[in-house]
Amino acid sequence: MPLKFIRCTAIVLLALVMGLAFAHVLEQPAKLQYDALLYLTLQKSLYVQWGPPHIGGFLEPLAVAATGLLAFCTRKNKRELCFSLGALTALLLAFPLVFFWLVAPANAGFAAAALPNIPRNWMDLRSSWEMGHAIRFVLQLSAFALLVVSVPVGTRDPAVVIR
User: Fold this and answer.
1) Fewer CB near the last or first residue (10 Å), C or N of the chain?
2) Domain around 134
């Protein structure tokens, strides 16, 4: 499998994942103005489509795996390996670390709530969820930038392929 294909796959998967996180960041100012019932309704309806078993729930692990494969495949090119490992590190901070530290507990809290009953700590859950996605977006954007910057570095040796 050619290295260019692996690099392209990693970048495309990461762009899709980053798009999901960027959408959360763009929505944040409006959503912070919503009352508890509307906010919880969105969490229990709209955002469940972004996780497993839907495609949104598989994009991030696939992006991490593709970036890990890219790092493995570029291990002989120190400059490209540094970019790939930097991107992989940022992605591993975003998922699983930040996701399971900030976002997943909030998801569980929202999922356990039965409308119209609002959890007493809904504002804490909201803060954790929103902050987690903002942090994740910055990490994903960093990873994306590292992968894009690595393209000219990696394309200098067209003979590098996986066999």
Assistant:
1) C
2) 3-154
